[in-house]
Specification:
Number of domains of chain B: 2
Helix content of chain B: 10-25%
Number of strands of chain B: 20
CATH architecture of the largest domain in chain B: 3-Layer(aba) Sandwich
Number of helices of chain B: 8
Strand content of chain B: 25-35%
Low-confidence stretches of chain A: 267-272
CATH architecture of chain A: Orthogonal Bundle
Number of strands of chain A: 0
CATH topology of the largest domain in chain B: Rossmann fold
Shape of chain B: elongated
Radius of gyration of chain B: 24 Å
Largest interface: A-B, 17 and 22 residues
Mean pLDDT of chain B: 90
Low-confidence stretches of chain B: none
Distance between the termini of chain A: 33 Å
Number of helices of chain A: 12
Oligomer: heterodimer
CATH superfamily of the largest domain in chain B: P-loop containing nucleotide triphosphate hydrolases
Largest sheet of chain A: none
Mean pLDDT of chain A: 87
CATH class of the largest domain in chain B: Alpha Beta
Largest sheet of chain B: 6 strands, mixed
CATH superfamily of chain A: MetI-like
Helix content of chain A: over 70%
Strand content of chain A: under 5%
Order of helices and strands of chain A: HHHHHHHHHHHH
Chain lengths: 272, 354
């Protein structure tokens, strides 16, 4: 490639990268600015990173909501996997009348916009006395992610060589043992991929949390949305809270990254 | 102990009948091979015995017990797959011990059995490796080890050697024969390779289109094929076929020219469009006289043997096996005859007459 072309490509790449990263960078900077710096013109380009008052004030009042987010997200991810993995394994390996229809039907439930379910869910949990509880959000998040999780897990189980499942059954495994001892260990990367997506969805969800929680089980995204009030938006707290909010998905994704890459490409190539 | 009985077994996938009413009786300790062209249903039949495939009709009995509705895990069988189907996430040792652990045997007993099996198959040095670190032949050995360690009543092999190279295949073939002799267990083996079938089997089931064409010993299949399909399928190079019609007083007229009496054939059995089968080694040849005259088109020299492909105007191409023969080359004129005692006559329904 000619030198001028190369420079052009790099310039284009950097330009696109800036479009995506600048808002995040600006938010990151904002987390370390005083309220005065936030609104100052010309802007403060390089804040004092030793200024941690925003974080301190934020966490002092809201740490319990961050804990709520952690509990609900992990709970929903685990609950979703507990139901999705056996379901997907069964749909792939059991031949019964209507199993394709059932799989399609499961996916179709994902087509419903969450807002359509918000009011009915509110009424159901209200009737059961479960409003503003961890359990309610865990159930809802797990439920909303089940169709996606089942479908992705199905593609991983489908990619397992049929003979390996058959060999396990000949060797004396029950269906559960086949699932637990053979299918699960061989689809680790798939499980990592699905659980990462479910984790990120549950961690970032705002709408249903707004509807179903008020104080005890309020999650962190709801807290962030609360910083925008009628009188003013507390940008310094929004920034600091958002920095905290984006950290767990990044850490979780980094841990799972090795698996996710192989998980996303699994099945792209025969025997891959 | 390990006899297998199939009674009126049928299998359909939708409207397609894959197995059409098969009944077989396999004796305890026998080595039986299912052979046939691809799509004949041999693997399906094996999978029905294993329980991995359900049956549309009929019953399967293993070791005197009706197992038609019994799960594969409870049928006292072991199976070796074409792809080996080892569990890639566990070591060779755990692969071999897998079934024993599932059965809940005590650890000392498992260790003893795994040690004994790996000694038989020469796996001792591989026990701590993962399957992906083994060659194809070693993986196949592990798969066999996993099967024999459980001491099942019946072994099922689904084309186990077809992923190996030719030399290794011959070696494994011999080892499997030895293994059968030492274990004295019933083995059912599926292959499309008739050489494998002929060399390994005590009895062979020849299948075509979901039906049993013949169930017999290798020698009987070769010497007395019951129909045209078996005659053409067993033997390499293939048997030669010549059109035949009824001649005078029980004789048959070959290619409208040569009249021959076939021993054991009477006039009543003859039909208008018969086929006479002659194996390449039962055709005699000479430079100057015979029933047919032809031209050598291809000469295949194997050293000890030679195969001459001869173009005979009345018949078409004829294959001749010539032992220690080097006097014919391409383009030579050759005269061919055959021994009526050693030929196979098939009627219009492709069934054997003589």
């Amino acid at each position: 490639m000619r030198k001028s072309n190369l420079i052009g490509s790099y310039a284009a790449a950097i330009f696109v990268m800036l479009i995506f990263t600048l808002p995040i960078l600006w938010m990151f900077m904002g987390a370390f600015k005083t309220p005065v710096d936030i609104y100052s013109i010309p802007p403060v380009w390089w804040p004092d990173f030793s200024y941690l008052e925003n974080f301190k004030a934020l966490l002092a009042e809201n740490w319990s909501f961050l804990l709520n987010s952690v509990i609900i997200t992990l709970g929903a991810t685990v609950l979703c996997m507990i139901f999705a993995l056996p379901c997907a394994f069964g749909l792939v390996n059991f031949q019964f009348k209507g199993n394709n229809f059932l799989a399609d039907w499961i996916l179709s439930t994902r087509m419903m916009p969450p807002i359509a379910a918000a009011v009915p869910l509110f009424m159901i949990f209200n009737g059961m006395g479960m409003l503003d509880t961890h359990a309610a959000l865990i159930i809802v998040y797990a439920g909303f992610n089940l169709p996606f999780a089942v479908w992705v897990a199905m593609s991983f189980f489908r990619n397992l060589p049929k003979e390996i499942i058959e060999a396990a059954r000949i060797e004396g495994c029950t269906w559960f043992q086949t699932f637990w001892q053979v299918a699960l260990p061989l689809t680790k990367s798939g499980i990592a991929t699905v659980s990462t997506f479910v984790f990120i969805f549950a961690w970032n969800e705002l709408l249903l949390a707004l509807f179903l929680t008020s104080s005890d089980a309020k999650t962190f995204p709801v807290v962030i949305s609360g910083f925008s009030t009628l009188s003013r938006t507390y940008w310094e707290f929004v920034s600091a809270a958002t920095v905290i909010q984006v950290l767990p998905p990044i850490i979780f994704t980094l841990i799972m990254q090795r698996h996710i890459v192989s998980g996303l490409t699994m099945g792209a190539v025969k025997n891959g | 102990m390990g006899q297998v009985e199939l009674q009126n077994v049928k299998k359909s996938f939708g409207s397609v009948d894959v197995i059409k009413d098969i009944s077989l009786d396999i004796k305890d300790g026998e080595f039986v091979v299912f052979v046939g062209p691809s799509g004949c249903g041999k693997s399906t039949l094996l999978r029905m015995i294993s329980g991995l495939e359900t049956m549309s009709e009929g019953t399967v009995g293993i070791a005197g017990r009706d197992v038609t509705d019994v799960q594969p895990s409870e049928r006292e069988i072991a199976m070796v797959f074409q792809s080996y189907a080892l569990f890639p996430h566990i070591s060779v040792r755990d692969n071999v011990a897998f079934g024993l652990k599932i059965a809940g045997l005590p650890k000392e007993e498992i260790d003893a059995k795994v040690a004994k099996t790996s000694e038989i198959l020469g796996l001792e040095k591989l026990l701590d490796r993962k399957p992906r670190e083994l060659s194809g032949g070693q993986q196949q050995r592990v798969a066999i080890g996993r099967a024999i360690v459980r001491e099942p009543a019946v072994f099922l092999f689904d084309e186990p050697l077809s992923n190996l190279d030719a030399a290794l295949r011959v070696q494994m073939r011999i080892e499997l024969i030895k293994l059968h002799a030492s274990l004295d267990a019933t083995m059912i083996y599926v292959t499309h390779d008739q050489v494998e079938a002929m060399t390994m089997a005590e009895r062979i089931v020849v299948l075509r289109d979901g039906r049993v064409e013949q169930f017999d010993t290798p020698v009987r299949l070769y010497d007395r094929p019951q129909n045209l399909f078996v005659a053409g399928f067993i033997g390499s190079p293939k048997m030669n076929f010549v059109k035949a019609s009824p001649g005078e007083s029980g004789a048959v007229l070959l290619a409208n020219k040569v009249s021959k009496s076939i021993p054991g054939v009477v006039q009543d059995q003859l039909t208008p469009n018969m086929q006479l089968g002659i194996r390449p080694e039962h055709i005699t040849y000479s430079h100057d006289s015979g029933d047919w005259q032809g031209t050598v088109t291809v000469e295949e020299q194997l050293g000890s043997d030679a195969f001459l492909y001869v173009d005979v105007p009345e018949i078409g191409q004829v294959t001749v096996r010539a032992v220690d023969e080097r006097s014919f080359t391409r383009g030579d004129t050759i005269f061919l005859s055959f021994d009526p005692e050693r030929c196979h006559l098939f009627n219009d329904d492709e069934q054997r007459i003589n």
